[in-house]
Design brief:
0% strand, 9 helices, 202 residues, membrane, Putative inorganic phosphate cotransporter, transmembrane helix, 73% helix
Length: 202
């Protein structure tokens, strides 16, 4: 019954979203019926085409900082997705939570991740305004985002089957992982704004 209701709500929300999208979003600013001339002029000024610079692949592939960044990216991605995929399984199979009845419990760690990652980005901006070097900010937030979850998960192994404590630790683990979004993930843009997309995809 709960699943049926949630499906109806999600479908309805999807339909409302689609209607809003079709009515409010347009292919280009020029095709938008409600854009003012001033706003259109401002948008055009901000989108002056820059000459395309070829990717300096030799410099890229021999860059030690870039390889360190890629190693951090691979490690974090593996840990993040392992936790993301296995946490609900752990809650269901080991702690015997019925996730169909309590979907909020399964979503709680991800909610923490979203909330903390927003807070971490605000914190990073605040620290930059105070004059702290960007490399120190990124490394500090990245350290919190990597070691925080590791410590939380290590503690899970020693608390026994205490569901409330374990759920709190899983929430804290994914929450602390949110600091990494203002750590290594933002470093791609710091290192090379023109090639950040390519670096991120590597």
């Amino acid at each position: 019954m709960v699943q049926e209701k949630s499906c109806i709500y999600i479908r309805t929300l999807g339909c409302v979203w689609f209607i809003l999208w079709v009515s409010l979003i347009h292919e280009t600013p020029e095709s938008h019926p409600r854009i003012s001339k001033e706003e259109l002029s401002l948008i055009r000024q901000g989108h002056e085409k820059k000459p395309r610079v070829p990717t300096p692949w030799k410099s890229v592939l021999t860059s030690v900082p870039l390889w360190a960044l890629l190693a951090a990216h691979c490690g974090e991605t593996w840990g993040f997705y392992t936790l993301l995929i296995q946490a609900p399984t752990y809650l269901s199979n080991i702690l015997h939570f019925d996730l169909n009845e309590n979907g909020l419990l399964s979503a709680l760690p991800n909610l923490m991740l979203s909330t903390v990652s927003i807070f971490a980005s605000i914190l990073a901006d605040h620290l930059r305004k105070r004059g702290i070097r960007i490399s120190i900010i990124r490394k500090t937030l990245n350290t919190i985002g990597f070691f925080g979850p590791a410590i939380c998960l290590a503690i899970v192994a020693f608390v026994g089957c205490k569901p409330v404590v374990i759920v709190a630790l899983l929430c804290l683990a994914l929450g602390l992982n949110g600091f990494a979004f203002s750590g290594f993930i933002a470093t791609h843009v710091d290192m090379s704004p023109d090639f950040a997309g390519r670096f991120y995809c590597m």
